[in-house]
Amino acid sequence: MKKFFETLTNIWNIKELRERVILTLTLLLVYRFGSHVALPGIDTAQLSELTNKTSGGGLLDILNAFTGGAFAKASVFALGIMPYISASIVVQLMGLAIPYLQKLQNEGESGRKTINQITRWLTIGICIVQAPAYLWGLKQLGVPESAFVKGQGLDFIIPSVIILVTGTIVAMWLGEKITDKGIGNGISLLIMVGIIARLPQAFMQEIASRVTENNGGWMVILIEVIVWFVVILLSIMLVMAVRQIGVQYARRTATGGYEEKNVMGGARQFIPLKLNSSGVMPIIFAQAIMFVPGLLAGLSDSETAQGVKTAFSNMFGFWYNLVFALLIIIFTYFYTAIMVPTSKMADDLKRSQGFIPGVRPGTETADYLDKIMSLITFPGSLFLVCIAVLPALANNAGIQQAWAMFYGGTSLLIMVGVAIDTMQQVNSYLLNRHYDGLMKTGKNRKVSA
């Protein structure tokens, strides 16, 4: 604990890092404040049915979690940052097939700026489609007519669409500003604080269920918290686990006189291949697909179709989680193939005069890396499946649904991944400061505020 407080002191003493942390916290507070500001013309007291629909698990629950509850509150940030994430994924996928985007990806910083601009415009386009769909869906999700103070005419729809689109643009700006001027990845931090915002309420509901209703008491609460910390440790292992591939880099050094030959030397390094290179995307994709069987089955009145609809409407049921697990494995392989271009890695390695010992540069290196990725992706996908289905297991074990959702799945992996990334950035600042001190005096320099 003493070392923890010393680290906080060191963070505060470094002026640049202190300013970045303060800016990050300020912008996150702005985002959280905006998530509680409702759209004009909506009576928030009549949104209880919408809250119930978005807390029952599934895609709506994920959307509500990603927006920090703004989706269920009909807030100006109701669309959240998800349109920007969707646009980013679309641009990534298009980059595999469109030569223009491939060219931009190879142009360095200028190409990256152009891709970011394309992503922003695509985000606005997605918002223009999603905003009217959201407003129309409010009534379908149980919001009564009386909740719309001025009705649902154009005088409500048009201003609300403009506000929702503007809200996403502001959220996108906040995220980019945190990334540029703050600490951590801004977009990811916006999602994380939205998820964490629901944690205290979920935990208090679980305490009320166990203690007030005499359903196990504080001992069960303690066991649940211990198990939760164990799951967090396992999630950290999943995020951090890598397979290191040894790489030898050739170098030439000329010494001595004119007739002395060049001496070949080398530096040994590693290519870190992540056990889970796809992150939480397989879970998100699989969660979206899981709604399709229920929707298709709902078109028929037969007994079999109704049975399928019932099975796929219960996210804590056996058949739902079995199909869910299979889809996660499939999407893990699919997204890993997109995110880890082994052919490009092999080409870059060859250009930098690097090689894997015992493997020829070029095609054989690409095949070797692809084989290694296939071997480590399978256990990685199984580990991801275990984390994804843990909320269902926790709920079936008697844990309240809201608290069970934090035992795994998308929410937990996002919190762990973003926390690790932010901590690494803070740590790099501290290490760099320490490195400067060693270069000057051999000790950490005292920094004026």
Automatic annotation (TrEMBL):
<feature type="transmembrane region" description="Helical">
    <location>
        <begin position="400"/>
        <end position="420"/>
    </location>
</feature>
<keyword id="KW-1003">Cell membrane</keyword>
<keyword id="KW-0812">Transmembrane</keyword>
<feature type="transmembrane region" description="Helical">
    <location>
        <begin position="219"/>
        <end position="242"/>
    </location>
</feature>
<dbReference type="GO" id="GO:0043952">
    <property type="term" value="P:protein transport by the Sec complex"/>
</dbReference>
<feature type="transmembrane region" description="Helical">
    <location>
        <begin position="318"/>
        <end position="340"/>
    </location>
</feature>
<feature type="transmembrane region" description="Helical">
    <location>
        <begin position="21"/>
        <end position="42"/>
    </location>
</feature>
<keyword id="KW-0472">Membrane</keyword>
<feature type="transmembrane region" description="Helical">
    <location>
        <begin position="156"/>
        <end position="175"/>
    </location>
</feature>
<keyword id="KW-0811">Translocation</keyword>
<comment type="subunit">
    <text>Component of the Sec protein translocase complex. Heterotrimer consisting of SecY, SecE and SecG subunits. The heterotrimers can form oligomers, although 1 heterotrimer is thought to be able to translocate proteins. Interacts with the ribosome. Interacts with SecDF, and other proteins may be involved. Interacts with SecA.</text>
</comment>
<feature type="transmembrane region" description="Helical">
    <location>
        <begin position="278"/>
        <end position="298"/>
    </location>
</feature>
<dbReference type="GO" id="GO:0065002">
    <property type="term" value="P:intracellular protein transmembrane transport"/>
</dbReference>
<feature type="transmembrane region" description="Helical">
    <location>
        <begin position="118"/>
        <end position="136"/>
    </location>
</feature>
<dbReference type="InterPro" id="IPR002208">
    <property type="entry name" value="SecY/SEC61-alpha"/>
</dbReference>
<keyword id="KW-0653">Protein transport</keyword>
<dbReference type="GO" id="GO:0006605">
    <property type="term" value="P:protein targeting"/>
</dbReference>
<feature type="transmembrane region" description="Helical">
    <location>
        <begin position="76"/>
        <end position="98"/>
    </location>
</feature>
<protein>
    <recommendedName>
        <fullName>Protein translocase subunit SecY</fullName>
    </recommendedName>
</protein>
<dbReference type="Pfam" id="PF00344">
    <property type="entry name" value="SecY"/>
</dbReference>
<comment type="function">
    <text>The central subunit of the protein translocation channel SecYEG. Consists of two halves formed by TMs 1-5 and 6-10. These two domains form a lateral gate at the front which open onto the bilayer between TMs 2 and 7, and are clamped together by SecE at the back. The channel is closed by both a pore ring composed of hydrophobic SecY resides and a short helix (helix 2A) on the extracellular side of the membrane which forms a plug. The plug probably moves laterally to allow the channel to open. The ring and the pore may move independently.</text>
</comment>
<comment type="similarity">
    <text>Belongs to the SecY/SEC61-alpha family.</text>
</comment>
<dbReference type="InterPro" id="IPR026593">
    <property type="entry name" value="SecY"/>
</dbReference>
<dbReference type="InterPro" id="IPR023201">
    <property type="entry name" value="SecY_dom_sf"/>
</dbReference>
<dbReference type="InterPro" id="IPR030659">
    <property type="entry name" value="SecY_CS"/>
</dbReference>
<feature type="transmembrane region" description="Helical">
    <location>
        <begin position="182"/>
        <end position="199"/>
    </location>
</feature>
<keyword id="KW-0813">Transport</keyword>
<dbReference type="GO" id="GO:0005886">
    <property type="term" value="C:plasma membrane"/>
</dbReference>
<feature type="transmembrane region" description="Helical">
    <location>
        <begin position="375"/>
        <end position="394"/>
    </location>
</feature>
<keyword id="KW-1133">Transmembrane helix</keyword>
